[in-house]
Amino acid sequence: MSESKDNSTGNWCLIESDPGVFTELIRGFGVQGIQVEELYSLDDEVFTNIRPVHGLIFLFKWRPGEDAEGQLRPDAKDVYFAQQVISNACASQAIINLLLNVDNPDVKLGQTLENFKSFTNGFDPANRGLCLSNSEDIRKVHNSFSREHYMELEQPKGGKDDNYHFITYVPVKRDAVTEVYELDGLQRAPVFVGNVKENQDWLDVVKPWIQMRIEKYQAGEIHFNLMAIISDLRTKYQKRIDELHNEGMESEAVNDEINHLSQLIVEEDEKMNKYKLENNRRRHNYIPFIVELLKILAKEGKLVGMVKTAQQKKKKQQASEQKKV
To answer: Which residue of the set 13, 90, 223, 284 is catalytic?
Structure first.
């Protein structure tokens, strides 16, 4: 749900739904072999180059009174699930519920999450959630994305704030059968989505379910965001290059593939550097700079004119939008 901006002891900061933020957050927990990609559709071709997909994180506008669509499974003991016992940590809640169900040799949870899982494995979902909310190591990483506030600006509120909530979808193998679950910290148990048939991709089971959720909103409303937890692409590309070299086969096609993979590695490095820069900007507090800029503009007699121009522009935009409606 909507998360608190307070970064004092015991509180959790606002987390933006962004692949760069989530990738750095996961790596901050100590997890290796994972990254996050944003998805703009559920079409099959979107998933072609990012498999394997270990799980999906879905952000949607939460509306009170909505019940779980599927069947609650309190008996799904093989599914790691922690309830959300506080209302301001749903981003990390969803990520950790997902990661602690990933079964892939290329994914290393790291000491922080391994210790947390080992300590809470025998607990019920409510007590797991309580332990998560009180984990200083996890909260510290989560709150590394908070901004330092030198002052608070009170804004008039025209109505109730929208609440957004993160949930996750994961495939879990139980008794030689792979099942897909929706893990929503606001529910008391995992929600069963469906069984994965032999030679079927688990994404084919979950995509109609997510589409159903999206269609519950009116046309034109954008109240959701979807991200995929996938294997580290740079490692994946490098592994394929090593395989081609070890095979010892030289041909124009092999060289073209190696060159293509090398270019993809360069693009991944550039993307991660961009994520790092954007995350540093997210953490920076621009308020002192803005205040000084406003003082200078006021001193030079430019501020009032700029405000009036901005107000007129806003009125024109609003009038134009009303005509379209």
So the answer is: 90
Prior bond to 105 cis, omega within 30? no
Annotation marks residue 13 as catalytic: no
Cβ atoms 141, 25 nearer than 8 A: yes
Evaluated on CA atoms 260, 266, 270, 272, the torsion sign reads positive
Assess whether 165 carries a catalytic annotation: yes
165, 223, 245, 284: the catalytic one is 165
Q: d(Cα 43, Cα 216) in Å, to the nearest integer?
A: 19
Judged by DSSP in three states, 216 sits in coil
Is pTM beyond 0.90? Reply is no
Helix (H) or strand (E) holding 169: strand 164-174
> Any residues with CB less than 8 A from the CB of 72 and at least 6 apart, and which?
187, 188, 189, 190, 191, 192
Q: Indicate left, alpha or beta for 309 from its phi (over 0: left) and psi (-120 to 50: alpha).
A: alpha
pLDDT digits (tens, 9 = 90+) for 67-91: 667 789 998 889 999 999 876 788 8
Nearest to 95 by CA among 33, 191, 185: 185
